[in-house]
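Appendix B. Raw example, untouched.
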Amino acid sequence: MKTQGIVVAVVLLVVASQLPGQDQPAEAEPKAAQDETLREELLDRVENDQVARKAIDELIRRKEVTLDNPDIKKIMEIDRQNTTWLKGIVEKHGWPSKSLVGEEGAHSAWLLVQHADHDVAFQKKCLDLLKAAVEQEEASPQDFAYLTDRVLIAEKRRQIYGTQLTQEGDKFKPLPIEDEEHVDDRRKEIGLQPLAEYLKFAEEAFTPKEEEKGE
């Protein structure tokens, strides 16, 4: 992958992981995880994932992300390790559902797959499993939307929900969207905030503040 591709991919990974925009109703009594050990492992891996990605926030703001940066290499290695591990979990259990690992654990499994860009075939396999889990209310529809778009963009197709972004200067814009006129309708149906709000959050998260520009 070219350096520019890596930069865009990393920006998208960080934005997706930090965005709040998922209007999921809180469960009155969340289900207890059937496999607490697996749940804890998922949460630990996501914590390591996020620590590594937050370390490059400033690099992204300054547009200094390069392939030879040790922090970028670390992220790529973490992604490879997590993907290898998760493949074994999926082979053994199927998709890590809410019943199996709790709501937070299931969301963590999604985040690890979302970051498996080096293995699109595995992402597609998980997308099918995630779709079935959503239909059984065992996974988040919003997670399904993000992974759907991720796979479509990887296949050089138009995304459906506008979750995948690219950066142009200090502005973010969605990568090509199918039937863009009705994207907010689709986002609303699945519990995502309007696209304009999504873009605003991304810009606020990654545009240097005035005091930072003056440093």
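End of appendix B.
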